[in-house]
Amino acid sequence: MTHRIIYKITPRALWQQAEADGVFSGAPVDKADGFIHFSTAAQVRETAAKHFAGQNDLLLLSIDAHALGPTLKYEPSRGGDLFPHLYADLPLHAVVKVEPLPINEDGLHIFPELNQE
């Protein structure tokens, strides 16, 4: 199972640091786990609710999964669902879109249209 576009939710400051460094090495949880966590379009809303509830100033990164090569693995996680995990730094050229991920008055994230491929 592969998807053309996968997603990463990240704080704006962390992404700005990645742009300055020329590479995204992941959030603290990614570094602790030894891989960068991603979600598919079907998974990303639940990821936002579970791990980023009420957080503002977030960005949604759209990543070309095919640009990541064999370091991208789909592995079981929440409820046995297969999640994309990157066992390398994320090269910035693989990021095809960066969009704000604001929250509404109820604290829920407002998602742009997602690529379901």
UniProtKB/TrEMBL annotation:
Pfam families in the record: DUF952
Gene3D superfamilies in UniProt: Protein of unknown function DUF952 (3.20.170.20)
PANTHER family listed in its UniProt record: BLR1139 PROTEIN, DUF952 DOMAIN-CONTAINING PROTEIN
This protein's name: DUF952 domain-containing protein
